[in-house]
Amino acid sequence: MKLLSQTLCLYHHLDHHHTDGVPDRCEGKGLEMDAVAVNEEGVPYFFHDHHLFKGFHGKAEMSNETFPELDDHVHVDAAFRMHYEDSDDHDHMFFFFKDKVLSYYQHKLEDGYPKPISEVFPGIPDHVDAAVECPKPEFMEDGGDMYHYDVKTKAVTSKNLQNLPSCTSAFRFMEHYYCFHGHQFTKFDPKTGDMHINYTKNAQDYFMRCSTFDSNSDHVEREQCSRVHLDAITSDNAGDIYAFRGHHYLHKDDATDALKAESIESAFKELHSEVDAVFSYEGHLHMIKDDNVFVYKVGEPHTHLDGYPKTVKEELGFEHADHIDAAFVCNDQHIAHIIIDDKIYDVDMKASPRVPTNERPMGVLKHVDAAMCGSTGVKAIVGNHFYHFDSVMLMVAAKALPEQHRVSQELFGCDH
After folding, report:
1. Would 7-205 and 219-411 be classified into the same CATH topology?
2. What superfamily in CATH does domain 219-411 come from?
3. N or C: which end of the chain has fewer CB within 10 A?
4. Where are the domains of the chain?
């Protein structure tokens, strides 16, 4: 969507704490992030000291591996990506450090940078502590300090944030605003400057995918409301939903809406963790991990069938499938729909041997993280949202994406 006006919200506080060595964002209660920004592909970049975490999981790398100029002498204080189509800086990433600012486009430093902050953003003080892009209708109208910089007019206004903690970084994600402070974050309303009541959470629980979490973590709420995308999802014949993310899964009882969260290993011990895709067929969960298919009976305890795991080639007939992104079976049909990259295939589960057929492009959907099919149609999950299609045929034939729905809220009832 084209934004007609755009504002930058910049925070000024001057207080940083750093650690030595290679950081691990899943250790203890988590890390304090110095800056957070989303790249042009929508992947969040989390900066800590001289290290960078790309996305919601994975190990830290040195920031200068991606941005060579961010050497030992450059510590990122704040960062944001400009998304304003009327500006020459559209899709540029800006990094603030001390009194300087750097501008990158497609990971390459623009000519003439670094420049003084006062030259690029006149009226903004040095030592910016956090920065986030605020579309004009969302930025604060009533009043650390926050400075609003209007990209179009270059006008600067300042506000005092009496209700917010001192933000070490700020982040706009899924149309919400987050102030990170220490290992926690607070959601706030940019129109009023007020933080949401009782909304100070552990950043590790909601923005990281870890094998273990702090002992005080609410496992159900974490899996219900996590901002980390799902790896796989399915619904069984009773309508119960099984959703998998990293080392944990969430079960939703269709009859009662009750939620239960457990480690994958506790319920599917042969699988351990990290499910690539899953589909339900004839009372069994077919769970795909790497090049293997594990089959479990629906219902507790989940019994692993003898003779499994089998290879993807043995079970589904794919000769060279490096990674299966999603799989689903609709209603009481016997066709497993398998999504690999931007292609979808059909596998007749009653055939022997089973072979993939009917290869076709996914249409407007270039990538799918997970998918499931129920009585109302197909839900294709991309990131933190899903798209609903009445049938597989309509999903493949779609010329435009339908309305987005939030996974955490509309599938699992998360209220924040």
Report:
1. yes
2. Hemopexin-like domain (2.110.10.10)
3. N
4. 7-205, 219-411
Contacts of 58 (CB under 8 A, 6+ apart): none
Q: Is the pTM of this model over 0.70?
A: yes
Q: Which CATH code is given to the segment(s) 7-205?
A: 2.110.10.10
- The pLDDT score that the predictor gives to residue 3 is 27
Mean pLDDT computed over 291-299:
95
